[in-house]
């Protein structure tokens, strides 16, 4: 088993929007007393993979430091804030590991550049910009080196400077919040199965055995741009954040995850227990978890309404995003897309990742059934993993109905062709 340990507020002028109710919550970044964090992160190769393509980051942006030495596991949130993230690489050979490492390195460097953020819009915009920059750099590296063509990575990254925790997501790695006894997934999987459920074309029961639930719709590095899903949580005292790759969420039920987070106090022990549980369930993928507990008088005690009202919430950035300390991408570094169709569905057992249908690993293993349950988007009970790992379908903003129809049409053609080829 391998372990990587690298790594109140006063109302004012900011605009955070609840996508469900459209109710603004205006706050400026001010911290009369600091927020305290107890945190840890761990990544494990699992029981089947030959090498680990996951990476994670735990960073104190004020000190511009990364790591999980003893002194790093208890932090006070400074003026630049804290950065926590999980990246799940794909692309075969060592390419997935390269992509996920590039992602955490570039996001960290972007987040420590410039002046400290002045408000919520600025820290949120900086997070989105950092993730987009990482995606462009990975894509550029893949174009320059054919052996890494098609590499990519998911990215679920959280940043905070006060009681607002911002989460930028690309792919299907997840963020959960435990508040009281309630565990809620506060990100939304960018996957085909989730899109079909939300479109009403697949029930949660059907999703449990859906053959193609390993298809993801976005990943950093598989095109020159991505659409970052930006969400936020207004933290309360005692909240616990879990970031994880699908090596955990695909193998361990949400109810079991909730019980571990609820009963184990030490983040280090939580990380160890969760990775052990995923390995005991089969360990069919790399397993990465980052856990942080939020404490301190700067955070209010949660009310019953805070507990029951916890949910997935979009954050609306102003247009255009505040320039302040953001550095615009260098136009000279932009590259053309891969000469591939916008949407690609592999014809034989679903390999993983990218527009070319590359696998995350060169291994030939298959995943067995894994399970999920609990609250929040995409938390629909036991899930059967298809062949190997998620594959990526770049959508570049195409309408959901068009994506679904093209995929369904492709699968229908495959089925008909297979029938006639196999017909005696």
From TrEMBL:
Residue span, PPM-type phosphatase domain: 39-294
Recorded GO MF terms: protein serine/threonine phosphatase activity
Entry keywords, A to Z: Membrane, Transmembrane, Transmembrane helix
Biased composition (Low complexity): 344-355
Region (Disordered): 1-35, 316-392
Pfam families with a match to the protein in the record: PP2C_2
InterPro entries tied to this protein: PP2C, PPM-type-like_dom_sf, PPM-type_phosphatase-like_dom
Biased composition (Basic and acidic residues): 1-10, 331-340, 356-375
Organism: Polyangium spumosum
SMART domains assigned: PP2C_SIG, PP2Cc
CDD domains: PP2Cc
Segments traversing the membrane: 401-422
Domain of life where this protein originates: Bacteria
Name of the protein in question: Stp1/IreP family PP2C-type Ser/Thr phosphatase
């Amino acid at each position: 088993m391998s372990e990587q340990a690298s790594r109140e507020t006063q109302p004012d002028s900011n605009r955070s929007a609840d996508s469900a109710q459209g109710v603004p919550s205006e706050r400026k970044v001010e911290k009369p007393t600091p927020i305290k964090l107890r945190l840890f992160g761990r990544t494990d190769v699992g029981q089947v993979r030959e090498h680990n393509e996951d990476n994670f980051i735990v960073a104190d942006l004020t000190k511009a430091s990364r790591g999980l030495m003893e002194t790093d596991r208890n932090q006070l949130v400074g003026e630049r804030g804290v950065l926590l993230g999980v990246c799940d690489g794909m692309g075969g050979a060592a390419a997935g590991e390269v992509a996920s490492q590039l992602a955490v390195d570039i996001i960290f460097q972007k987040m420590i550049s410039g002046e400290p953020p002045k408000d919520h819009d600025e820290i949120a915009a900086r997070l989105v910009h950092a993730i987009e920059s990482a995606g462009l750099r990975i894509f550029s590296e893949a174009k320059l080196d054919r052996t890494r063509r098609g590499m990519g990575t998911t990215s679920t990254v959280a940043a905070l400077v006060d009681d607002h925790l911002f989460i930028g997501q690309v792919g299907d790695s997840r963020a959960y919040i435990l508040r009281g006894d309630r565990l809620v997934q506060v990100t939304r999987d960018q996957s085909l199965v989730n899109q079909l459920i939300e479109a009403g074309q697949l029930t949660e029961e059907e999703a449990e055995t859906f053959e193609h639930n390993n298809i993801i719709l976005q990943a950093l590095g598989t095109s020159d741009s991505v659409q970052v899903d930006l969400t936020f949580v207004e933290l309360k005292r005692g909240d616990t954040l879990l970031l994880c790759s699908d090596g955990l969420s695909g193998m361990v039920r949400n109810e079991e995850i909730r019980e571990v987070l609820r009963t184990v106090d030490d983040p280090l022990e939580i990380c160890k227990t969760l990775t052990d549980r995923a390995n005991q369930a089969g360990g069919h993928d790399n397993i990465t978890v980052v856990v942080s507990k939020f404490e301190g008088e700067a955070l209010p005690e949660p009310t019953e309404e805070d507990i029951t009202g916890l949910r997935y919430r979009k954050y609306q950035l102003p247009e255009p995003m505040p320039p302040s300390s953001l550095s615009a991408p260098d136009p000279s570094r932009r590259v053309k897309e891969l000469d591939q169709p916008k949407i690609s569905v592999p014809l034989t057992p679903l390999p993983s990742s990218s527009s070319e249908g590359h696998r995350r690993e060169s291994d030939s293993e298959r995943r067995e059934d894994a399970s999920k349950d609990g609250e929040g988007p995409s938390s629909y009970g036991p899930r059967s993993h298809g062949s190997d790992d998620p594959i990526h379908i770049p959508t570049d903003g195409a309408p959901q109905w068009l994506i679904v129809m093209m995929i369904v049409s492709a699968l229908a053609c495959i089925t008909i062709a297979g029938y006639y080829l196999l017909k005696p």
